[in-house]
Specification:
There is one protein chain. This protein has helices at residues 3-27, 35-58, 70-88. Helix 1 (3-27) crosses helix 2, helix 1 runs antiparallel to helix 3 (70-88) and helix 2 packs across helix 3 (70-88). With 89 residues, it is an all-alpha fold. The protein has one domain (3-88). It contains 3 helices and no strands. The mean pLDDT is 93.
Length: 89
C-alpha cells in the first residue's frame, strides 16, 4: 500500500470521526460558541447542507421522517469516495 493510499484512508477515517462528533454534539447540550463545536460544524456543515439540499429535492419523503439521516448519508458518501479514490490509485 502506497503512502497516498494510506493518506486517503486516514483522511476518510478522520472525517468520519468528525461526522460522529457532530452527531454527538447535537445530542448533548453544548454551547454553539464552544471552540470544538464551532470547528466540528465548520468541517461538516458544507457537506451536510449539500446532502440536505439533494435529498429534499430528489427524495422529499425523507424530510418527514422526524429525524435527520444526513450524517448517515455523509458517512456513506465518504466511504464511497474513499473506495473510488483507492480504486483510481
Amino acid at each position: 500500500m502506497s503512502g497516498l493510499e494510506e493518506l486517503v484512508i486516514m483522511a476518510a477515517q478522520a472525517y468520519i470521526l468528525v461526522i460522529i462528533a457532530a452527531v454527538v454534539c447535537t445530542w448533548m447540550d453544548i454551547s454553539p460558541q464552544n471552540k470544538f463545536v464551532e470547528l466540528v460544524h465548520r468541517l461538516t456543515l458544507p457537506l451536510f447542507e449539500a446532502i440536505r439540499r439533494i435529498t429534499s429535492t430528489y427524495v422529499p419523503a425523507l424530510d418527514n421522517l422526524g429525524f435527520d439521516l444526513t450524517p448517515v448519508w455523509a458517512v456513506i458518501l465518504v466511504h464511497f469516495t474513499k473506495r473510488v479514490l483507492l480504486f483510481i490509485l
